[in-house]
Design brief:
three-stranded antiparallel beta sheet; elongated; 16% strand; alpha+beta
Length: 365
C-alpha cells in the first residue's frame, strides 16, 4: 500500500463523523472541568472528579465517612420533601476493602451539588456541538479538495495521457516544461475543461464553523472572535459581550451547595470562576498599571513638602503600589494556586479513597 492510500485511510478515519464527534466531545468535556476553581477542597475529593460528575451527570452527592469527605454520582431517591425533591440517597462506598451500601439523607448528613437547576449537566449541549463540528469538518475537507480542482484534463490516447501526467508533475516541481505536439497528436489528443472556482462555498463554510464555535463557547462563557459582518467593525463592537448567563447559573448552584457543605460539615470551601473563562486577570492587571501611572505625579506633588527627598518618595510610593498590585494578584490567583498539604495528609487522603487504612512503621514519625 503506497503512502497516498495510507493518507486517504487516515483522513477517512479522523474525519469520519463518528470519530470526529467523539474526539471533539472528549476534548470539550476535559475543557469544561477547568471552568471552576475550588479552595480548601478536601484532598479526598479531586476537583476533576467533582466537576466530571457535575458537568456530565448534572449532580453529585457530598458526604462524610469516618471523618473523610467524598463525592458520588449516586442519584437521590425515596421520600421527597414538600417541594417534591428526593432526600434519600444510597451510595456505594468501600470501607476496609469491602464494598458497602451507605444511606444518607440530603440536608442532614449529605449535600446535593448540582451543575444547574435542572440537573442536566453540559453533556447534551456538548453532544450537539460535537455533532455540528463533525459535519463542519467533513464539509471543510470536501471544500479543500474541491478548491484544488481548477480544470479537468481529458486525454484521448495513452501517449497524451502520459505526457499530461509529466506536464502536471513538472508544474508541481516548479520546472519549466514543454510538451511535443507529436506526442499529443498535434494537440488534438488533449482537451482541457476549466472549472469555475468560486470562493463563496469556502467562505460560507468558514463563517458557519466560526458561528458554531462562537455560539456554543458563548454559552459556556468564552468570547470567541467571530466577525460575520462584511463591513468595518469598530473597537467597541469587538469588545462588546452579551454575558454568560449559563456560567453564572452554574456558579450560583455551586456556591449554594458549598454554603450548605460548609455549614453542615464545618468546612471552609470556596468556589470561583477560573480567570481563563472570565478574562478578569488581564483586565484587572491593565487597570492597575494605568492607575499607578496616573497617580504617581499626584503622589509626588503631595509629598513634595514632607521634608523627604523626591527620590525616596517615589521609591516608597512605587514599593507601596507594587505591594498592593502583588497583593491583588495573589488574591486573584488564590483560586488557582494548589493548596499546601503535608505528606501525612496526602497519605491519609489516599488511604481514605482506597477504602482502607494502611499502617506503616513510620506512622508515628
Amino acid at each position: 500500500m503506497n503512502m497516498s492510500n495510507m493518507d486517504d485511510i487516515r483522513e477517512d478515519i479522523f474525519f469520519s463523523r463518528v470519530v470526529s464527534h467523539q474526539n471533539t466531545l472528549s476534548y470539550m468535556l476535559g475543557k469544561v472541568r477547568g471552568i471552576f476553581n475550588y479552595e480548601s477542597l478536601p484532598l479526598t475529593i479531586p476537583r476533576d472528579v467533582l466537576e466530571g460528575y457535575l458537568t456530565q451527570s448534572g449532580q453529585a452527592v457530598f458526604y462524610e465517612v469516618e471523618g473523610d469527605f467524598f463525592v458520588s454520582e449516586a442519584v437521590p431517591h425515596g421520600e421527597a420533601n414538600i417541594y417534591g425533591q428526593e432526600t434519600e440517597v444510597s451510595i456505594p462506598h468501600k470501607i476496609d476493602g469491602i464494598q458497602k451500601q451507605l444511606t444518607r439523607t440530603i440536608g442532614k448528613d449529605a449535600v446535593l451539588v448540582v451543575n444547574d437547576p435542572e440537573k442536566v449537566g453540559l453533556s447534551p449541549m456538548l453532544e450537539e456541538y460535537a455533532a455540528l463540528m463533525a459535519q463542519a469538518k467533513l464539509t471543510m475537507l470536501r471544500t479543500f479538495v474541491d478548491l484544488r480542482s481548477t480544470r479537468i484534463i481529458q486525454a484521448k490516447d495513452q501517449n497524451s495521457y502520459e505526457a499530461a501526467l509529466e506536464y502536471e508533475a513538472a508544474l508541481r516541481r516548479g520546472d519549466i516544461t514543454v510538451m511535443l505536439a507529436e506526442e499529443l497528436g498535434d494537440m488534438s489528443g488533449i482537451n482541457v475543461h476549466p472549472t469555475p472556482v468560486q470562493g463563496t462555498p469556502a467562505s460560507q463554510t468558514i463563517e458557519l464553523t466560526q458561528y458554531i464555535q462562537s455560539m456554543y463557547y458563548g454559552e459556556l462563557g468564552l468570547d470567541v472572535n467571530n466577525n460575520m459582518k462584511r463591513a468595518y467593525v469598530s473597537d467597541s463592537e469587538l469588545e462588546k459581550t452579551t454575558g454568560a448567563p449559563l456560567l453564572d447559573v452554574m456558579h450560583d448552584c455551586r456556591q449554594e451547595a458549598i454554603r450548605d457543605i460548609n455549614a453542615l460539615f464545618n468546612l471552609d470551601i470556596t468556589v470561583s470562576i477560573s480567570e481563563t473563562w472570565t478574562g478578569k486577570k488581564s483586565d484587572t492587571g491593565n487597570n492597575q498599571t494605568e492607575e499607578v501611572d496616573d497617580e504617581e505625579p499626584t503622589s509626588d506633588e503631595a509629598d513634595g513638602g514632607s521634608g523627604e527627598s523626591t527620590g525616596s518618595a517615589d521609591g516608597d510610593a512605587g514599593d507601596a503600589d507594587g505591594d498592593a498590585e502583588d497583593a491583588g494578584e495573589d488574591a486573584e490567583d488564590a483560586g488557582e494556586e494548589p493548596e499546601e498539604a503535608t505528606g501525612a495528609e496526602v497519605t491519609e487522603a489516599a488511604e481514605a479513597m482506597l477504602g482502607e487504612t494502611i499502617e506503616t512503621e513510620d506512622d508515628d514519625a
